[in-house]
Amino acid sequence: MNFSLSFTTQRYYRIAVGTLFFVQGLIFSSWANRIPDIKHSLGLSEAGLGGVLFFLPIGQLCAMGLSGYLVGKFGSKRVLSVAALLYPTALLGLGLVTTVWQLSLGLLLFGMCANLTNISINTQGVGVERIYRRSIMASFHGIWSLAGFTGGLISTLMVGYNIAPFEHFCIIYVVVLAIILTMRNSILPRDTARDTNSKRKIFSKPDAAIFTLGTIVFGSMICEGTMFDWSGVYFQKIINPPKELVRLGYIAFMFTMAGGRFAADWMVTRFGITKILRASGITIATGLLTAVLFPYIATATIGFLLVGIGTSSVVPLCYGLAGKSKTMHPGVAVASVASIGFMGFLIGPPIIGFVAQASSLRWSFALVASFGLITTLMAAKAKNL
Predict the structure, then answer these.
(1) What is the largest CA-CA distance in the chain?
(2) CATH H-level, domain 7-187+200-382: superfamily
């Protein structure tokens, strides 16, 4: 790739890719914020919801290898141009479900579309980061989280006006479709590995560095998935706030996650990646335990704010490191780290549901806090990557 691009051209690519990160986050947040409503409409128990939510990460995991292959073979721009249109369409399908099996199938397809979009857009992010020659990946994920925060506010408004999930999703669909059609031709035309004639293989076995990064992401994503899928239910069942405040915990989490990601690139430059990752795991565990030990609106909100800070930088920093792999195509390297990491997304929500059914929702959150410490324990190995 030509690194002598003008500042205007660099900004052009960064804005285009950042906008599509925002769209991706808005789509996912729109679904996550309506989970309590869909759970209620289908009459699902905690264990039932946990089992159904299992299908979303299964769909992501099923598409992981395909995503890496398609991006490696055809380039991230072509894959993203298609995946970005499929993703909001899958969201519409979730708004139409009336049975558990329909929701399960819908989440499977939604997860597959999410992963195709995720791998291709992160490969685009790696390319833009290489143009800038400094860490900017976390800021892209900050935009994703900002979209999640925005989606939480929009969802709260929709619930306040008693707008059904399908009608809500239709509004989101129209908005994001207009943005996607406007921006999809403005992203990076080619990926770095293709431009530099790299000999990195499309298919290759992940090395120790990639496995380490995947394990770090694994610990963080268990906690992240818990926040996405269960924060609203936790507030509804344990905190028991007024109806309009049920999504307060999720919004708090997304708010600090976004802020943390915008600050992460500067913090890595200032303190180093090892210190940031170590602090992240401790902050995640502290936040979850605060919400468990002090189940009140103020303290639980503070706890979820801390979880947002802790999880904010882990995934983007690890994806950025993976994209610099000397043995794998950046799209395949990111997909490999995501494959390991998304196992956390895969097992996290069901663990919450089944433990909650067997004991209590509070104890299930306490268990997840221990997984957050994986990030701290593995951080020492990251300094050699």
Answers:
(1) 59
(2) MFS general substrate transporter like domains (1.20.1250.20)
